[in-house]
Amino acid sequence: MTRQPPQPKRPPQRASPTALRDAIRVEALRLGFDAVGFASADLTAEARQVRRQRLIDFLAAGWQGDMGWLGERTSERADPRALWPQARTAVSLALNYAPEHDPLAIVQRRERGAISVYAQGRDYHDVMKSKLKALGRFIWDTYRHDLKVFVDTAPLMEKPLAQSAGNGWQGKHTNLVSRRFGSWLLLGEILLSIELPADRPESDHCGQCRACLDICPTNAFPAPYRLEARRCISYLTIEHEGPIERELRPLLGNRIFGCDDCLAVCPWNKFARQARETALMPRPQLDAPRLAELATLDEAAFRRRFAGSAVKRIGRDRFLRNVAYALGNGAPRQAALPAVELLLKDASPLVRGAAVWALSRLAPHQVAQRRRTAGEDDPDVHAEWRNALQTAQGRENGR
Question: What is the pLDDT of residue 53?
C-alpha cells in the first residue's frame, strides 16, 4: 500500500475583523449553537470593580455554602484578561434546552422524582465542550488565531459576559434570561487573541415582575438579583455534601436533583422554542423516575443508569439521600415505606440518616420500635434517630 505524502497546511485566511466575526457566528450556528454574541475581553475599570464587588459581597454573606472554590481567584472571575492576558474578544455561546412540557407538573406527582430539565439528557458539559472545540478548530485551522475554550472549567463569570455579548440579561433569579429563549440557555465561552467588533449588550427586561422570587420553595432570594445558595434547592441537592438542614427538608418536595421553579415560571419563556439539540433530550430513565425504584440502586446500578448524565457526578450516596427525603415528603406510603425500610439498612450513614427522617414522616408510630432494632453505631445517624423520636412523641402528645 502506497503511503500518501502529508498534505501541506493551508495558509491562514485573511479576513477583516467584521468578516471574521461574521464567519465565526455562521460556523457556530452551523455547529448547533442557538445564540452567539461577541464582547470585548478588556473591561473598563468600573465594570471590573462592579463584578468583583458583587462577588465579594456574596462571599462575605456566606451564601456560597460548601462552594468554597467561589472564593478563589476572585480577580480572574471578574476580568477575562486576568484569566488570560492575551484575550481581546470574548465569544459567548449558548445552547437552548427548553423542555417540551411544563417542568412544574412533576412536583405534583409525589411518587416520582423531579430531576432538573438540564440534567435529563446527556451531560451538557460534554455536549457544549464538543461543539466549542469544533468551533475552536475552525478558527485556528482557518485563521490561526490563539484561543481558549471554557464550559464551567475556569473562574469565568459566564452570565455577565453573556449579557455584555447581547445573549440575554441576568434576571432577578440570577440566571440568564433571553427574549428569544426565556430562561433555558446553557453557556460556554471562547476567548480570542484578536479584537473583533462587539455586539450590543442586552438590557434588563424584568421590569416589576417577581414571579421567580415568589415561587421559590425555600425563599432563597433575599432580594432581587441576590441568591443565598445555602437555601437554594439546586445547591442543596447537588453541591451540599452532608445532611440537609431539617427545616429545609420538607420544602424539597420530590426534587431529587436540582430545581426548575424559578426558571419555569419566567414570563419570557412564552417565546422559547423546544430544544433542537438531540443530546439534551430527556432520557426515559431520567424523566420522572419512580422514587421507590431509585431507592433500590446500588453503586453499580447507579453508575449504569446515570452514565453520561450530570446526575452521576454527585455520586450514589448523595443522590439516595435526596431520594429518601423525597420519599418522606408525601410519596404514597404503600410504595414509600418498603423503600425507606431498605434505605435504613444502607451502607452509607448519609443515606441511613435521611431514611430515618423519612420514616418519621411516613410512620412516626414505628420510630421507637425501629430505633431499638437498628443497631446503629454512627453518631450522625444516632442524632437523626433522637430527633425522629422527639418528633414522633411530639405528634403523639399533640393528638
Answer: 56
